[in-house]
Amino acid sequence: QVQLVESGGGLVQAGGSLRLSCAASGRTFSSYSMGWFRQAPGKEREFVARISWSGGSTDYAESVKGRFTISRDNAKNTVHLQMNRLKTEETTVYYCARRSSGSYDYWGQGTQVTVSS
User: Fold this and answer.
1) What are the CB-based long-range contacts (under 8 Å, 24+) for 44-48?
2) pLDDT single digits (tens) 21-74
3) CA distances from 83 to 46, 70, 104 (A)
4) Largest CA distance in the chain
5) Tens digits of residue pLDDT in 71-107
């Protein structure tokens, strides 16, 4: 069983930064791509960023390109999301997930990010 635990959320002013972390259990973390998503109440889940198993390839939603950076540390079984120049409309819960065979099979419980004006 894989467990993903997000941390690093909180309250920040618009234009500020936060760094989210996702800690994964299990010995096979480095074999999988990982992703970050966000979902506001009543809205569909939105893809934010993805990183390959090696960290050599990344992909971002257009809305966050140039502001967010995804990274990973396979020695520590962690993946991070550095978020800069945050906007109020990015207030929501952020989730990390493991990607396997083209879909995401394990999800964390989420961490709340609140961006104030």
Assistant:
1) 45/95, 48/81, 48/94
2) 999 998 889 999 999 999 988 999 999 999 999 999 999 999 999 999 999 999
3) 15, 9, 22
4) 42
5) 999 999 999 999 999 999 999 999 999 999 989 999 9
- Output the DSSP codes for 40-55: -TTS--EEEEEE-TTS
* Strands in the chain per DSSP E: 4-7, 10-13, 18-24, 33-39, 46-51, 58-60, 68-73, 78-83, 92-100, 103-107, 111-116
Which two tokens mark 86? 């945050």
How far apart are the C-alpha atoms of 71 and 68, rounded to whole Å? 10
Cα→Cα distances 39→1, 57, 69, 106, Å: 24, 24, 18, 16
**In this structure, what token pair is assigned to residue 63?**
């809305």
CA 26 to chain centre: 18
